[in-house]
Specification:
alpha/beta; Rossmann fold; BirA Bifunctional Protein, domain 2; eight-stranded mixed sheet; 15 strands; 2 domains
Length: 410
Amino acid sequence: MSSIETPRPIRGTQDIFGADAEAFAHVVETFERVRKLYRFRRIEMPVFEKTEVFSRSLGETTDVVSKEMYSFEDRGGESLTLRPEFTAGIARAYLTDGWQQYAPLKVATHGPLFRYERPQKGRYRQFHQLDAEIIGAAEPQADVELLAMADQLLKELGIADGVTLQLNTLGDGDSREGWRAALVSYFRAHRHQLSEDSQDRLERNPLRILDSKDPRDKPFVADAPEIDDYLSGEAQDYFGKVCEGLQAAGVAWTRAPALVRGLDYYRHTAFEFVTDRLGAQGTVLGGGRYDGLIETLGGAHTPAVGWAAGIERLAMLVGGASEDVADCIVVVEEDALMQEGIRSVGLLRNGGLSAELLSSGSPRKRFDKAVKQQPRAILALSSQEGEVSSRFHGSDDDEGLIRAILSGNA
């Protein structure tokens, strides 16, 4: 017996197999189908970027940058970071790859992201997200388009029941600053009764106090100033058009006045699709309008809006998808017929059927092994008087199709 110890998986990562992998793939395939319906262009992004892409866009003082990013120095001495989210990299590509010529640009992608945080149900240090963005569109219709796309995705995944779209506005720049000042003044009066995290956020990121989960903060959050008291006429009009557009699109929503985005470049619409079916981690898809982001990366003022959704969480809501059964298993009951079995399986696959060759183990037990896999059909190959013969197990229609494919008459 080997004395070598088997390496253990890294904490916060996962190996996905079987029904879980099928549910994961189902989420991705559904997303790809829906993004084509909405004419979002597929993009692929690097897994790592220069660290400044994230530190400048997410802010040096955010938890993601200060605590959670996987950053390292490469051999050339440059600081690189495994992407913790998609939006900053997409904004960088918009500026450096000449994508401005396509504005308004609708793009979508999916893949792995990396954050060093406490692993829990539905949250991993390597996780996967779907992402959709519209860059260069200042109109409320862009927000409506993204929300309608997200709503349709959840419906086509079959998980819309029990998921609620929570919607809020952060107003324009002046509205947000007026609200921010009021929040700072209000929370300062209760500073010593707030949680340590909220005391830390008070001066640098007071809006984040509103989404605190700490019980010590909840009584003060409930009575905090609300954005509606500080909205300009333009901001009210913008939010009204988003709401009217959602009604026209048939997308149900509920107002969530405490829903915020802490970073200063977020404007107007903020939203989350939430569920109570995943415990504390209730958000399955979230996003908002980030009109000031591209300026932080050195570009001109560029309106933009987007959302992201965790594939793992969506797959958990979908539940374990059953693995597909084979259309046909070809059983080689005599080893001398191996080449005929290989030929038959190849013809069936070329004919559009999923097929598997069963040719290992005891020849006498192969047919029974095939039956246990419950395929739609079984074709067993044997020989009689030197000639290849076959027996079929399945419906008459399946037999007709399979024999037609094997004879070249399909």
